Amino acid sequence: MRPENLYHTGIVVDDLEATMKWFTDVAGYTWTDVVSVDQQAVTADGEVTIPMRMVYSGADPRLELLLTVSGTVWTPADSGVHHIGYWSDDVESDLSTLESNGMTVEVKSYNPDGSGTLLWAYAKGPTGPRIELVSRNMEPFIAYWWNSANP
């Protein structure tokens, strides 16, 4: 991981629309379309389907707001910052580096094409926010989503 690969800060919130409005009113943020998806993921307890709602800010530095999902890692963090997201050219390798530095994998998701490659993963250490690794192969899709932000 390198600092220049940091591309967003994720914040889990109980009211997505109210939080979006607050950031817009206070700091002038614009937002992408809100995406709702049943995300397939793997946790320590096995495979799960997570109903997620999320949105990105329209400009850098990016904020990602995610709606709370009880019983998962997607609950508000005491610090306010849930995770920091990094692009990764090799999620599996970068995840191994995080694990060798005392972090624990909480959840990960594989490409649905059956290739066995990781699309993203979250790791948590004894201090600090979670780190999300996102395959750089997702960058065009996410960039397309960012373009949906209203000016």
From TrEMBL:
What does the record give under GO molecular function? dioxygenase activity
Q: Does the keyword ATP-binding apply?
A: no
Q: One Pfam family, please name it.
A: Glyoxalase_4
- Domain of life of the source: Bacteria
Matching SUPFAM superfamilies, A to Z?
Glyoxalase/Bleomycin resistance protein/Dihydroxybiphenyl dioxygenase
Entries under InterPro entries matching the protein: Glyas_Bleomycin-R_OHBP_Dase, VOC_core
Domain VOC, first and last residues per copy: 5-136
Q: Which UniProt keywords apply?
A: Dioxygenase, Oxidoreductase
Supply the name of the protein. Glyoxalase/Bleomycin resistance protein/Dioxygenase superfamily
